[in-house]
Amino acid sequence: MRLVVKIKTKRKDCYPKYMSEGASGFDLRACIDDAVVIKPKSWEVIPTGIYVEVPAGYEIQVRPRSGLASKGITVLNTPGTVDSDYRGEIKIILANFSNEPFLVEPGMRIAQGVLCRIYKASFVEEPLSPTDRGSQGFGSTGT
User: Could you give the angle at the alpha carbon of 142 between the alpha carbons of 141 and 143, nearest 5°?
Assistant: First the structure.
C-alpha cells in the first residue's frame, strides 16, 4: 500500500528514497554543502533538506541505519517523531558513540524514516487490572 505524502526539498539530491522494494524505511540524506565531523562521544544536528506534510493519523519515525549503528553511529532520540502538523525541515541528531571521529559527507544516507499509523488514546482514571508482574520494573523479567 502506498500513501501520498507531500514533500518539499532544498535540493533534488536530498530526496528520500526506498532502497529496495521490501524496505519499510526510506533513507534520509545529509543535505549539507561541506562535510561535518562528529567527534567521538558527541553529536551534531544534520539537516536533511526535506519538509513533509504527513497525513493526519500518521507520523514519520526517524530511526538509525543499521550499517551506521554497527559502527557506533546512531540517531540520538531514536525513534524521533515527525508529527502531522510539523512543517519545518527534518533534521537528524546524529550521535557518535565510537572512539573515532565520524565524517558525514554531503548526500550521505544518515537515517531512515518509517511512515506509521498512530492511534490517539482517551485516558480514563480507573483502577488498573492486576498482573503477575505488577509494578516490578527494570530487569524484572530476567536476562
Answer: 130
